[in-house]
Amino acid sequence: MSKKKVFVSCDFDNDQMLKDFIIGQARLADSPFEVVDHSLKEAAPEADWPKRARAAIKRSELVLVMVGPQTHRAQGVLKEVALACEEGVPIVQIIGYKDGSYPAVPNAGRLYSWNWDNLKRLLS
Which stretches make up the Thoeris protein ThsB TIR-like domain (predicted)? Predict the structure, then answer.
């Protein structure tokens, strides 16, 4: 079975651990997806960051946005979502914390709870 190639977008400054957790789940034997790339640290963005992000998103079959309290305002995430939309790459949003009721990222589709059944269904 071929695994779906996923680009993980997250608010790097506030929720980097969400990226680490989803990468861990991608490594499980029964995972239907693999993480091919993820958000880059944007505090000191390189001049070619948009070009590199676009290339990474184009290599992916889906963009997975890991949503935390401030993700809907994170400039890097907003740019990655815009790039995915421009490239026609589907986007899925997952709430990153069990106790979270956070705003969705604009233009990134419906928000889903983070559980293994949802991941398997959405990312297979």
Answer: 8-94
